[in-house]
Design a protein that fits this description.
The protein has 8 helices and no strands. By secondary structure, it is mostly helical. The protein is elongated and about 75 Å long.
Amino acid sequence: MVCGGFTCSKNALCSLNVVYMLVGLLLIGVAAWGKGFGLVSSIHIIGGVIAVGVFLLLIAIVGLIGAMHHHQVMLFFYMVILFIVFLFQFGVSCSCLAMNRGQQETLLNSAWGMLENKTKIDLESQLNCCGLLNVTASRVQFDQDLQNCTALCKKKGSCYTCGDMMLNHATEALKILGGVGLFFSFTEILGVWLAVRYRNQKDPRANPSAFL
C-alpha cells in the first residue's frame, strides 16, 4: 500500500506516539535521577518536570490506543489537545529565540525569587558563585543570599555572581531551547495532521459501506 493509505497513516501515528512516550519516560527518569542524586532539591522543579513527563506520556498513550483501534473519539481529543500544546510550545519557543538580555535578567530575577533557599544554596555550590545580581534593585536579596552562600569561592574572598555566570550562557542556551522547542512543535503539528487524516480514512478491514 502506498504511503498515505490507511496502514501507512496508522503506522506513522503509532511510531510518533511511541517517540512521545519515550520522551515522557525520559523526563520522568531524569527528574527522579536528579532528585535521587541530590542534584536538585526543590520539589517544585522536580514536580514540574515529572508533571510534563506524565502529561506527555498520557497524551501519547491516548494517541497510540486511538491509532491502534481507529477510535474516533480518542483521536479527536488527541488532536485537539496536541494542537493546543503546539500553540503553547510554538509561542514559548519563539519567545526564547527573541529574548534580549534585559528580558533575560527580568526572567532570571523572577525565577530566582521563586526558589527555596536550599535550592539557591545548592545552585551556588554547584556553580561556585554567590547571589544572583549585585544591582540596586535587588540589594537586600543579594545581601541575604551572600550571607547564606556556602560556595568554595566565598572562602577565597572572590566570587562571581550566579546571575552573571548564567547570563553569559543564557543566550546560547535559549537559542538551543527555542530551536529544540520549535522542532518538537512541528512534530506535534505533524501528529495533528496525521490524526486528522487517519481519522477520516476508512479501515479496509471494516464493512465497506460503513463510514468511519
